[in-house]
Batch of 4 targets.
Target 1
Amino acid sequence: MKSNKKFRVGIDNYSLFPLNLSPMETLVWAKDFGAEGVAFSGLQSEFYDNIDNVVLLDLKQFAAENNLYLEWGGAQHIPRDMVSWQKKDISKINQKSAVEAQKLGTRIVRSCSGGLMRWNPENPATEILLHETANALKSQRQMLMDHNVILAIETHFEFTTFELLKIFEYCETEPGEYLGICLDTMNLLTMLENPVFATERILPWIVSTHIKDGGLLFTSEGLKSFVTEIGCGAVEIEKILRRLFSLDREVHLSIEDHGGDFNIPIFNPTFLSRFPDLNTNELASLTRIAYLSQKKVEKGKCEVLDRKKWLKICEDRVKKDIGNLKKMVAP
């Protein structure tokens, strides 16, 4: 793909979780296998509990010496316990992440609260969570700006891109101020969004990425989404990259890969009604993605991978992902 810009290809550390690498070991792995940076979207507890100024400064120095980018994580945006649904204060959690990011010299702090809430009708309504999220984030504006960071809400399984735009509107903020989006290119399928359409909707807000390929397959309950090696699925990654290349700033291309699949019971009208912004054009495009995914599975180009098998293949597949994505962005 022709581009007059340099977009660095790196990894999200979640892809290598089964290897149980420390943050420094993850950076060394990235350097050794051709990745150009690491997005630490989250850390296992044994490493998270030991993060201090020395660790952060060591990471910053190693990254600078080897021309690797760094992005941070650990933030949350829904002010609730995602199991009990009790309200909770997320300001201290986010302040800790913001302080750490500032010490690392990165502006990007990925935020994720979990998700799949609308899969269970007993959970709080999405509209309630939207307003609570907006109120919580609006109150953190000055703190995040003081630390010169952007809270990058991942397109995970909490909100659609339509809903994220509503949050930004409620917060009365503009792109580049203190809120942004971490674009996960495959998670969008699980939230019944065409990845290319969704990218166009939120393009000015995208500050980081999880470049992830995948597909959809029909099931007895509707659809299921699944993850594939980059370049082997039905996500039109090159079209998404063209949109990202149109931005007036660099956005790091962090690969996230893992096993598993997600049930999407669209044959249930009540479930489908919980996606009020889904229109016929987008739904039609999703059925086409399912058709193309099925053809790829039948031809042996991809498969639904059990999460339990990810440990055995994760290292080799992430290496392939790096090579495949670099070919896509090569001048």
Target 2
Amino acid sequence: MKMMFKKILTFCFAIVTLSSCLNNNEPSYTFEFLPIDEAIVPASFKFGERDTIAIKYTLNNGCYSFDNLYYEYQDTVRVVAVRALLSLENACTLNIRQEEYKFVVNVTQKEDYLFKFWKGKDSNGEDTFEEIVVPVN
């Protein structure tokens, strides 16, 4: 009986030890902001209506995929950027591709909208933007 208990205890210890080696708590992905290549905006907005803006961005290789749109607003300014998911698990293909994303703007203010589309960082590490004003009629 004592020998059987030792075998079971040794077996349980081995399972716990081996399974703890399998738990990799490191994430297998990270997030990055991607520069917006182009923004297609309407010539003007109509107050109280909805309109669509399209942005184009480039996925650098097969490990990148679109995650979501970063859209922050304060007063009349809208900051827009693309957040991408970068997989760290697989070997990446060299599949560079440009994609387009469209989003709806609810025109709820009578003042002109200032859109700041993120273009990346300059040589000093500062964020750079393309600024486009869309008047409201």
Target 3
Amino acid sequence: MSEIKEPYRIIISGGGTGGHIYPAIAIANAFKERFEDAEILFVGAEGKMEMQKVPEAGYKIEGLWISGLQRRLTLDNLSFPFKVWSSLLRSRKIMKRFKPHAVVGVGGYASGPLLRVAVKRNVPAVIQEQNSYAGLTNKLLAKKVRKVCVAYPNMEQFFPAEKVKLTGNPVRKDIADLAGKKEKALDHFGFNAAQPVLMVLGGSLGARTLNDSMIENMQKLIDAKVQVIWQSGRFYFEEMKQKLAQFEGTESIRLFEFLKEMDLAYASADVVISRAGALSVSELSIAGKPTVFVPSPNVAEDHQTKNAKAMVDNGAAVLVKDVDARKVLINEALALINDNDRKARLSENIKALAKPNAANEIVDEIVELIA
């Protein structure tokens, strides 16, 4: 297959949020499953969550001094050119020392510098684009890299058609295999099998609108006897904990800063409320969960709305606008919980859009480029 005799060396760069980090780890795991002696190095942004999550997954990571441009004038913006220069310099040093056979960029601040250096050194480079709308950095880099692995059809409008490969987004292996986990999941969360379970996901950092919608409609959920798994995100956890304590009858409300046992959370849920980040959409598709998406308005090119509409247009999800959420979101979720036919239809349709072999297909593309 390959003329390379030594173990493969792969750099995976990017991060910033779980939506970039977990697909990257899934690619690394798939690569290691196929090539046990492969060396994999992650490169992330200093101070971002990848610097913690990647070592927890068993991989080495190095950090770049890099951040994004803010929309308003800040000290961070003034230092941005120096950060770019510093990150390119450090990327060159990492590339020279590690000598990778290929570099994979998964998005996030650290992805750009590594891919630029890889391209200049003629090292095979791959972009893994998670969203249905490509960002500016990836559109520019796509002209130079060898392959662009995408999660949605019709991405040729952003990238050179001959480089595009539709693979889907890689997800954690445990989420792809939920069969038979329902009983264990309910037991894990201390739930009653006779009552419905609603899961609320605001992303790894949290979502103000979802959290406020929960608090403002908490009495409705209590009265409906709905059991809840609620990931508030680390920015909002303490505030939501204090507000939740003001209600009586919250014994079946489980509030988390961050969910580690995502497979059990998905397995227990009858209906999910979620932001529409690419990873969430992919995981919910593979899990086959009836979902109400509330796209974040605070993202580049409004890509979460585009992600959600790709599901809604296929009859695979419900969409509630962020601006309407506080008034209608919980009512929509409760209506869905009580409509078994609609739940079954949404579950079937969203599962039909899943791409469970994404990580292995991306590994195929990397190996083909190296060979």
Target 4
Amino acid sequence: MITPFLYVFATLFTISQQEIGRPLPRLSRAPSDELTKDRAWTKLAIRRMWQERKKMSHTPLFKFNYIGQQNVDIIFKNESAARSGSLKHRYAWSLLMWALIEGHVKEGTAVYEASSGNTAASLAYMCRLLNVPFTAIVPDTIEDVKARHIEEYGADVVKVPLSQRLIRARELATQNGGFFMNQFGNADKAEEFHESGDFPLESANLFHEILVQLEADIRQDVKIPHYFVHSAGTGGTISSVGRYVKKYGINTEIVLADTQFSIYYDYVMYGRFKNESGANLWVEPGMAGIGYGPMGMARKGETTSMDAAVIDRVVKVPDIAATAAMRVLREQGASGGTSSGVNLLTSMHIAATAVKPKKSRLVIATLLADPGHYYDSTYYNREWIARKFARHGGLQAYDCWYTVITECLASGDDPLLSGYDRCPSGLIA
């Protein structure tokens, strides 16, 4: 008679005998020790990225010649001097470093990115350093010079309608087994790699660099800017500066300079457009590369990197006024792109309206993000302005704003207030 215990044992033994015929999974033998292929490649890639960081050095600072405000320094950081030609060089470095460390980019990974041009060029530069294929998905309105600049670094360029960039980039990455970098959603994830802490290799954070440069300048009495002014496309740069300032308790006010038909002003001030689209409110041509409009809802971590919590103040400026400010800046010897015009106009407004320190100069730090020659055929071209800005008042409005800004440069008055009173607003008032 078989007891229940023996029956169970016999059954298990029978099953075990049946399993013997199946091949068992094999383990690597102990002891074993080796680097994975990906790990070895990644270590080399990261080493090359740090070599690039050493070569980046500091982009130069220069003071804007502000005749009408003799006790104010508007200090531009000239990011067009970066190795790939724009502010996005350090940003692309940080994004790719994050993607390497997190394992998103490995040997042979095809990288895809949606961009207005500058981030794509800088990522193309970085990917070429690592021999990684890169494809830029850009708006079909991109300036030819920007598209050629991307291709010069060995990248492919795919042109789509402005509102379709993120959708198409994600589709291509999925179809081809690549990685969609998504600067709009992942800038905050790359934030850690803007900073190096106490490690000997210096932080790539833009504001850290400004502070280091001001501290080293014996001619500069005020070492910490009272204001930092910048526009936003993804929102990554101004948010990284804002987080840096808040983290270290620096007494600098972070001012977002927003374009006329961008939703960022309302997004930051009132929490709007997180669950509603502002695409139908966008009026062309906008200011290329900055502002948020045609891409639908602003979802942090998906379609934008804007961190409203670290922004202290928002100023919205007319697009045609910012275009005129680009011309004023160029005539003063500093040729910059669309964001530079927005930044100058906002900085002059702040200088004219701020309560001045009693015992020191007022210091406003801002950026010249990319070179003006990218826009010679567009925002510096009167025929293009007349055609594209017709609804904004055309050349009559452009010339009026140019006159107002030039006069305020000499008088120190507020150009936004003066221009609002004097200049036509066209059909979009």
